[in-house]
Specification:
Helix content is about 60%, strand content about 0%. It is an all-alpha fold and about 70 residues long. It has one domain: 434 Repressor (Amino-terminal Domain), CATH 1.10.260.40.
């Protein structure tokens, strides 16, 4: 079973792909590096609350939806 970081990363990746935006575009819109976005999507990094809020805003979901 995937851990929380991995589940969160997969959800972010799925939402990003549903919006048809690249990691580079998501990074630009959230003022982060593409590498950092990649690490979050792979479950290698734990995003801060502030980063989670930015991602949710750009991905057009509520913060809670990232964890469901």
């Amino acid at each position: 079973m995937a851990n929380t970081k991995e589940r969160l990363g997969k959800k972010i990746q799925r939402l990003r792909k549903n919006l048809d935006i690249t990691q580079e575009e998501l990074a630009e819109k959230t003022n982060m590096s593409r590498t950092h976005i990649g690490h979050i999507e792979q479950g290698r990094k734990s995003p801060s609350i502030k980063v989670i809020e930015k991602l949710a805003r750009v991905l057009k979901v509520k913060v809670g939806e990232l964890f469901s």
